[in-house]
């Protein structure tokens, strides 16, 4: 037997596994690196977050990614070169983190890499009958495995598409394994570039579990701040707080057909970007536009929750993602949902900043050691696993 396959088999039989989860979202702030210890698999899964760090991307890295990110026309040779380049870069970041944490690569069982999304094209967006749901994340797993010497699982979203889903949100699978509670219904909100949430019923019935994108999160807000204020983001919403809500603009922004489509659904910066808002702004002040964009994120998120979740006494909401640090968005959510306990994911034992990286590590753990897999998004009978496996040698 190939010794690498033998090692893979032995990893699957271990009582616990050390897995590094990697996440770089559409905000492109940096790479989230989460060192996790998993015990068991399936509904018996437990996780300890041992180490976590967000390694910021240099501006030159963001510039290269933006050349191909969510664009209709790109330099195709550059895309080809970026795939291994990002894989090597992510691998080198892992190596540096392990050295900083005094952990040997040989102690790590696997890396779970989300990659960098550059295009998301579900059929609801491209509307071309002969083409399926599609998504593209770059950062080659083979290069990462060779660079680190560690077994690497990557490209998780492709299997979800192949199994009948849209490739997102994948959060519901890890959320279900790690954060379900018999004591309360839970709504787990993640506000990254796009806002999404997972509903976890207290009775644990997976048929009732769902996750959906609600609309834009930070993506338009950050892009607007970068263009008009020459800042990476609006720290603590200091600029937005100066502005005034423009109800007319808000109503125009919310008229897109996406918001009336049934869930589960996905979207991305391919749809919600500056080109979407620019024709609607008129002569409003930049501060007013920014405040209205914060309302746009909070309103569409809360609208989607209220339309699809019965908020009972035993329903609590937990926040994660960069948007949980935007005090204006958080306050607007609390105003729309006044009778619900709203807290950060941190109170559940996992940092809200680390959550997505931990979730992809959980998907890898299930692929390596799970016995039943996840129910397909298109049916409730058969199961599937996610992630392509790259051997280091």
Flag low-confidence runs: none
Distance between the termini: 14 Å
The count of DSSP E runs of length 2 or more, i.e. the number of strands, is 14
Total helices: the number is 14
- Relative helix content: 25-40%
**Proportion of beta-strand residues:** 15-25%
Derived structural class: alpha/beta
- Please compute the radius of gyration using only Cα atoms: 20 Å
Query: What is the arithmetic mean of pLDDT?
Result: 95
Let me know the largest β-sheet: 7 strands, mixed
The shape is globular
- Helix-strand sequence: HEEEHHEHEHEHHEEEHHHHHEHEHEEE
Give a description of the structure.
There is one protein chain. The chain is α/β, with parallel strands linked by helices. Helices cover 38% and strands 22% of the residues. It has 14 helices and 14 strands. It has helices at 3-13, 59-66, 76-101, 123-126, 141-148, 156-162, 171-179, 219-228, 238-242, 247-253, 274-281, 286-308, 327-336, 355-369, and strands at residues 16-24, 30-39, 46-56, 110-121, 134-138, 152-154, 185-191, 194-200, 210-216, 315-320, 341-344, 374-375, 383-384, 388-390. The strands form three sheets. Strands 1, 2, 3, 4, 5, 6 and 14 form a seven-stranded mixed sheet that branches. β1 (16-24) and β2 (30-39) form a beta hairpin. α7 (171-179) packs across α14 (355-369) and α8 (219-228) runs antiparallel to α12. The longest helix has 26 residues, at 76-101. The chain starts with a helix and ends with a strand.
């Amino acid at each position: 037997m190939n010794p690498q396959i033998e090692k893979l088999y032995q990893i699957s039989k271990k009582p616990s596994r050390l897995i590094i989860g990697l996440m770089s979202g559409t905000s492109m702030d940096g790479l989230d690196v989460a060192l996790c210890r998993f015990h068991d698999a399936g509904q018996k899964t437990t996780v300890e977050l041992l180490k976590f760090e967000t390694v910021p991307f240099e501006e030159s890295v963001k510039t290269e990614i933006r050349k191909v990110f969510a664009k209709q026309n790109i330099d195709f040779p550059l895309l080809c070169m970026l795939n291994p380049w990002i894989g090597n870069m992510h691998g080198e970041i892992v190596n540096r983190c392990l050295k900083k944490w005094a952990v040997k690569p040989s102690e790590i069982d696997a890396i779970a890499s989300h990659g960098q999304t550059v295009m998301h094209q579900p059929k609801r967006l491209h509307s071309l009958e002969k083409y399926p749901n599609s998504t593209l994340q770059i950062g080659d797993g083979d290069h990462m495995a060779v660079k680190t010497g560690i077994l690497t699982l990557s490209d998780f979203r492709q299997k979800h598409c192949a199994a009948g889903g849209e490739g997102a949100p994948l959060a519901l699978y890890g959320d279900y394994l790690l954060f379900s509670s018999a004591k309360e219904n839970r709504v787990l909100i993640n506000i990254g570039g796009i806002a999404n949430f997972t509903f976890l019923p207290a009775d644990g019935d997976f048929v009732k579990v769902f996750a959906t994108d609600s609309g834009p999160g930070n993506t338009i807000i950050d892009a607007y701040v970068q263009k008009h204020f020459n800042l990476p983001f609006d720290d603590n919403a200091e600029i937005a707080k100066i502005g005034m809500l423009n109800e007319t603009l808000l109503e125009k922004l919310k008229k897109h057909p996406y918001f009336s489509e049934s869930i589960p659904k996905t979207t991305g910066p391919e749809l919600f970007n500056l080109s979407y808002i620019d024709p609607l702004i008129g002569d409003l002040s930049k501060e007013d536009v920014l405040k209205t964009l914060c309302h746009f994120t909070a309103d569409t998120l809360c609208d989607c929750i209220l339309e699809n979740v019965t908020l009972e006494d035993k329903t609590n909401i937990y926040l994660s993602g960069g948007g949980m640090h935007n005090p204006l968005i958080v306050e607007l959510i609390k105003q729309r949902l006044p009778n619900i306990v709203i807290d950060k994911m941190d109170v559940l034992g996992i940092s809200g900043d680390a959550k997505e990286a931990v979730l992809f590590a959980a998907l890898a753990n299930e692929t390596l050691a799970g016995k039943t897999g996840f129910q397909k998004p298109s049916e409730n009978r058969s199961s599937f696993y996610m992630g392509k496996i790259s051997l280091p040698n």
